[in-house]
Write the structure tokens for this entry.
Amino acid sequence: MREARVGVALLIDGRQELLLGDRPDYPLMSVMKLPLAMAVLDRLEREGRRLDERVPFTGEELDAETWSPMREAYPEGCAELTLRDLLLYALQQSDNNATDLLFDRVVSPREVTDYLRGLGLDQQAIVFTEREMGEKPQRCLQNTMSPRCAVQLMEMLLSRPVLRAENRDFLLEALAGCRTGQNRIAAGLKEIPVEAMGHKTGTGPELPGRGLVGINDLAFVRLANGHRYCLAVFVKETSLAPAEAEALIAELSSLVARALSEL
């Protein structure tokens, strides 16, 4: 028998909430890159810095053993990439080296957690960078968030002035262009009239005695009928194959989208 712990949070039109299996101990994996991006943009705003600020780096600074399309493009490093470029690599391609450059040059994991607490969120912990988790995979169990906290964060991005309008729009466009996890929430929206959708995925390793640590997706969706919603589906400690976990997320996404499209 296949087993999984599944957490689901749904926030409809910023008001109606549905929770299933909501706990604060779901490993975020690369969903972490959304709160990181928000904390980075908040820091830039407060310090008067710009997205087109260049971030030079050397090849020696890049982890050769991690997922990084950026490293494939710039194995010797680069002096021309900007903070905007790093954020796009992190959000759209889930690039781990771009993520760690943002941690190193702009905000630390602790400062991301503090930023979230400043927004009034309290069911999360950002402790380790991507390199640190790569060195000891068990550390990914300490970068956590509840599904409810995740949808609350997404809703804040959509409807509250937590960032300047231009930075908010940049971030939403980046999420709309996410290239990872297309077999998850996005797959459940096929044949549903959708005006806008953006998301951030997370995928964890297998750990002894725990199975697949995490298969996650967090999305905002605006339907053609005017309803919008934020949906988080986090799957942890599962014996499901990755494709099976993705199919589960897609099925839950489809159920939500079909129900709300008929309202």
Observations:
- The chain has nine helices and eleven strands.
- Residues 14 and 155 are 7 Å apart (CA to CA).
